[in-house]
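Quiz preparation item.
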């Protein structure tokens, strides 16, 4: 789950999965998440790379990438916040 706790629309959440043969697969998993909204999605076990993009102005975007290793049936919650003009991805909790 990703909660948009920023004052901006979260334009996209993209996950990159590395396959065994080193092929990278990029998937748009959610888009246009308004402030206060929650995006919920499933990902496969293992290491994933996420890229979250916010658009503060029409022709300008800010992106933040982070990695996570997921266990089987693990639930993880993140919040997207802005602190001192920087996009922060804050891990809130992990339940198994």
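Solution:
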């Amino acid at each position: 789950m990703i909660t948009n706790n920023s004052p901006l629309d979260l334009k996209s959440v993209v996950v990159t999965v590395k396959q065994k043969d080193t092929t990278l697969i990029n998937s748009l998993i959610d888009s246009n998440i308004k402030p206060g909204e929650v995006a919920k999605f499933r990902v496969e076990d293992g290491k994933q790379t996420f890229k979250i993009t916010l658009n503060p102005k029409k022709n300008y975007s800010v992106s933040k990438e982070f990695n996570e290793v997921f266990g089987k049936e693990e639930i993880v919650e993140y919040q997207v916040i802005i602190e001192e003009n920087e996009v922060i991805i804050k891990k809130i909790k992990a339940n198994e």
